[in-house]
Amino acid sequence: MNYYEAGEYEVVVIGAGHAGVEAGLASARTGAKTLMITINLDMIAYMPCNPSVGGPAKGIVVREIDALGGEMAKNIDKTHIQMRMLNTGKGPAVRALRAQADKVLYQQEMKKTIENEPNLTLIQGMAERFIVEDGECRGIVTQTGAIYRSKAVVVTTGTFMRGEIILGDLKYSSGPNNQQPAVKLSEHLEELGFELVRFKTGTPPRVNSNTIDYSKTEIQPGDDVPRAFSYETKEFIMDQLPCWLTYTNEETHTIIGDNLHRSPMYSGVIKGRGPRYCPSIEDKVVRFNDKPRHQIFLEPEGRNTEEVYVQGFSTSLPEDVQYRMLRTIPGLEKAQLMRAGYAIEYDAMVPTQLWPTLETKRIKNLYTAGQINGTSGYEEAAGQGLMAGMNAACRVLGKEEVVLSRSDAYIGVMIDDLVTKGTNEPYRLLTSRAEYRLLLRHDNADLRLTDIGHRLGMISDERYAAFTAKKEAIAMEIDRLKATIIKPDETTQAVIREAGGSELKDGIRGADLLRRPEMTYDAIKQLIPSPEALGEDVEEQVEIQIKYEGYIEKSLQQVDRMKKMENKKIPVDIDYDAISGIANEARTNLKEVQPLSIAQASRISGVNPADISILLIYIEQGRVARTASE
Amino acid sequence: MEFDTIAAISTPPGEGAIAIVRLSGDEAISIAERVFQAPGQKKLSTVPSHTIHYGHLIEPSSGRVAEEVMVSLMKGPKTFTREDVVEINCHGGITAVNRVLQIVLNEGARLAEPGEFTKRAFLNGRIDLSQAEAVMDLIRAKTDKAMNVALNQVEGRLSKLINRLRQEILETLAHVEVNIDYPEYDDVEEMTHRVLLEKSQFVQQEIDGLLRTAEQGKILREGLSTVIIGRPNVGKSSLLNALVQENKAIVTDIPGTTRDVIEEYVNVRGVPLRLVDTAGIRETEDIVERIGVERSRKVLKEADLILLVLNYSDELTPEDEKLFEAAAGMDVIVIVNKTDLEPKIDMDRVAQLAGKSRLVTTSLLEEQGITELEEAIAGLFFSGAVGAQDMTYVSNSRHIALLNQANRSISDAISGVESGVPIDIVQIDLTRTWELLGEIIGESVHESLIDQLFSQFCLGK
């Protein structure tokens, strides 16, 4: 192989999936000269599995990405075929937006954005090695001999590393959807001393829409009000396509049961660990054998294709069995299978090898993000990609790196979970992973994160000015409602009666009336209108912040208590072996995770309060033994 | 949590004219202020540091005066821990000081771990480095001991109850979570306000029940209810005197009750005993005769421990046998007294009647066998044999405080449901209840919710 010098950059991003594109854009937007390299330029931001973005927890991540200046929200706003707000009947903390994507359009749109991004170069190629000098990553070498020198590298290889597709007894080396896998890179990471694990995930079959009898299914339309993920989106797509709901039945389950011996999951061919929240249909039938039926959603993959994604039907059973299973389902009796479902096994990094900035502990200036870190899902990947890209650029440019806390963002919860606890299955964000869920809402992502995005140059001054104005309007309106007294006159009583509440005996402050469960801001507005017209987003914030003030306050107190522990920093080069009294299991885990604060240490499994006390004593006394510097 | 406000009794347990409850931390003063009432509406937050104030401690819930106290207030950093410190001086004696502790714990202080005041002093740079190793040994040793206690409790009734309650809450939480994370899965029923209310009320009832046992104060606060029975002249009175003399009884005359339930408290090797009907014994020497068979049965039934006394130098009578019958199925220590006299009793028969009950021979006159008796009492208690009936062991101040906090959380949840707050927000209080109950048995891991989610429901793409 002839090697040649192909260029110098500040940051190189390997991969252009959902993590890669956000990493590349974030790095470039933060101000670093960035190169993005991908195996196949036609597969940028490709969705190898479900054609949707968002949902509970994940949808909030998309909003957070937008507030930080990332791209996913804007891109799906431009390319969706349907959007729905979920959990509208519940509280504000769990509302979440989900969009069905036009997969091809999504890719094209993202590619266009990347191609036109100043500071960002996009090329096709396969990275095989890193250039590592003095424990620092200083570039990459590609399959074709190109040497790209850089000050930092972000790796976002998804499920490509030593990927293997498994379908019945068929098994072959491949990335998702029969793309070229990345084998050399995996080997190289091992050479460098990284610990890899084998994970597994899967995807359901796709069928041709023309062969589906939709009359036997239930329609699932999108919302008929304009919706968007991005705070900047001003144009809304109202022409939407529906999804459809059908069910498996006893017959489907019998076929699955009869063919379990042919399932690679049960015959032992698949060894990688799969996610519990995304079980295959054969898994569901075995584990919940008392359920007479399971839901199947039929989701179009785009406007210019007849391919339909059979959600709920992920499987790695042989193709002939998939055919027979499908055809037992109402509406799919004559369905033409276009692509068979399959399972894929791949290498992932053990994520406790990372700092909370997503830089690897072993090699300086090398970052990893996305599915390579043991997560699953486009949104989880994108959130990490954004953080890794941003932090790589910060490192190179000498800016302070950004670590989001568990009370800042779902992205913070995810990264803290990964680097502190690791994961023994592909990690997915769930609302139940967040202890401060009420603070991490869909509606307030901008209030939480726009400052950070703006500081790093990811948010334009114009947008920031609008954001600041919004923040002020919210504060002023809350103050006004807290100060204004509503008199119990006939107009007031009528409005209250209409809302179904009990009449006032005395005057009441606007805020106190709004706290009544049956009252809304709209009703209050009738009684004491704001001197200036307020945007819907401002009104929504005012209503939520007043109505749930007590609960929000409670959460903030919890955050405060934890902050004290977060502020107790642990020196990076602390020598745990020199601290007497720490239990063995705790010592091993502390050495592996290398927590940066006492709070993080307390979240590590096997570290108990006595260990934390002892650790604190050492740190407070400044008598920490340091390991010999590397 | 490492930096919250802690409290503990800082005087040695037992006798003493006064006892001190000490608080340390950011909220020490505000907690004390909420429960302290001084003449002239003096506010603790406004008085100078390092001053002492006379007043009363009140129960915030009822506004009732609980104790007459002196409160010293010391603002950090010139204190032992370098944090704000409040010391509440009250009358000595287990009941009073425990009540004071209980009040501040209910207000949000956390019971200090062993050595924690010292640890804070240390962490805040008050104690010099040479003491580091010693303190660490202390923390390690005490924690191990605390863990052993926790381990014992794992098999205990309390933790079984708490585990069951937590599992109930966990299933409810998982149900709510699954509605949030998988809103479209129709095989999972939507959690309704009505169901959530029922569940929350059930949880509250259970917590209330536990707190009631705590209030009945069967153990630490009031002692094991103990009854001495036996025929006339077997030495009941001597037994009582022996226990009392050895252990410095606190005689209380509970107001509003007839004098036949005068009780005396003794502390036998750390086991508090409440000797019931001691006046009866002193005066008539015969409880059965004096208060009638029905009453005596009732007294027996309510007792936690029965000391059944027999006469070594007399033959067993049908009356003795009846006493055994009356005490059947209860925790009994059989005492064969007067071994200084000639043996006439059929010891084989006594052993047979005693069955599994402990048997001790004494000569109270010659002070023989008292040590053995005390060992038997302590042994019975610490092996967990006593208290098999209603004693859920909610006697520990930390447990009571946590239960009270859990009770408040679940009340918040209930009032949230009742006023129509969305379920996923009410869940914050339900989750808190679950965590607080977990703290009682030393378990509070978030991951278990996610495990529950996936084992209880069939989810996924």
UniProtKB/TrEMBL annotation, chain A:
Family recorded in the similarity comment: Belongs to the MnmG family.
UniProt KW NAD keyword: yes
Function: NAD-binding protein involved in the addition of a carboxymethylaminomethyl (cmnm) group at the wobble position (U34) of certain tRNAs, forming tRNA-cmnm(5)s(2)U34.
Gene Ontology cellular component list: cytosol
Cofactor: FAD
Keywords, ordered alphabetically: Cytoplasm, FAD, Flavoprotein, NAD, tRNA processing
Chief location: cytoplasm
Keyword tRNA processing: yes
Binding site for NAD(+): 274-288
GO function term, MF aspect, one: flavin adenine dinucleotide binding
GO biological process: tRNA methylation; tRNA wobble uridine modification
Domain tRNA uridine 5-carboxymethylaminomethyl modification enzyme C-terminal subdomain: 546-617
Entry protein name: tRNA uridine 5-carboxymethylaminomethyl modification enzyme MnmG
Subunit structure of this chain's protein: Homodimer. Heterotetramer of two MnmE and two MnmG subunits.
Binding of FAD, residues: G15, A16, G17, H18, A19, G20
SMART domains: GIDA_assoc_3
Organism in which the protein naturally occurs: Domibacillus enclensis
InterPro entries: FAD/NAD-bd_sf, GIDA_C_N, MnmG, MnmG-rel, MnmG-rel_CS, MnmG_C, MnmG_C_subdom, MnmG_C_subdom_sf
HAMAP family: MnmG_GidA (MF_00129)
Cellular localisation: Cytoplasm
UniProtKB/TrEMBL annotation, chain B:
Function text: Exhibits a very high intrinsic GTPase hydrolysis rate. Involved in the addition of a carboxymethylaminomethyl (cmnm) group at the wobble position (U34) of certain tRNAs, forming tRNA-cmnm(5)s(2)U34.
Positions bound to Mg(2+): S237, T258
Ranges of residues in domain TrmE-type G: 223-382
Sequence similarity: Belongs to the TRAFAC class TrmE-Era-EngA-EngB-Septin-like GTPase superfamily. TrmE GTPase family.
Cofactor: K(+)
Residues binding K(+): N233, T252, I254, T257
Pfam families per record: MMR_HSR1, MnmE_helical, TrmE_N
Localization per record: Cytoplasm
Chain sites annotated for binding GTP: 233-238, 252-258, 277-280
Cross-referenced PANTHER family: TRNA MODIFICATION GTPASE GTPBP3, TRNA MODIFICATION GTPASE GTPBP3, MITOCHONDRIAL
Assembly information from the UniProt record: Homodimer. Heterotetramer of two MnmE and two MnmG subunits.
Entry protein name: tRNA modification GTPase MnmE
Enzyme Commission code: 3.6.-.-
Single Gene Ontology BP annotation: tRNA wobble uridine modification
Keywords: Cytoplasm, GTP-binding, Hydrolase, Magnesium, Metal-binding, Nucleotide-binding, Potassium, tRNA processing
Gene3D superfamilies assigned: P-loop containing nucleotide triphosphate hydrolases (3.40.50.300), Probable tRNA modification gtpase trme, domain 1 (3.30.1360.120), tRNA modification GTPase MnmE domain 2 (1.20.120.430)
Cofactor: how and how many bound: Binds 1 potassium ion per subunit.
